[in-house]
Amino acid sequence: MTASDIVYHRLYNQRIAQRACETPGQAVAWMGAIQAQDYASVKWAIGLRCSGATDSSVEQAFANKTIVRTWLMRGTLHVVGASDVRWMLALAAPGIIANSARRYWQLGLDDATFAHSRETLTGALQGGRRLTRGEIMLTLEGAGISTEGQRGYHILRHLAQEGLICFGPIQGNQQTFVSLDEWVPQTGALERDEALAELAWRHFASHGPATLQDFVWWSGLLVAEARAGLEMIKPRLRQETLDDGTYWLPQDVSIVKDPSPAAYLLPAYDEYFLGYKERSLVLDPKYDKRAVSSNGVFRPVIVIDGQVVGIWKRTLKKGAVSITPSPFNSLTDAENQALVGAANRYGAFLGLPVVLE
Question: What is the pTM of this model?
Answer without folding.
Answer: 0.95
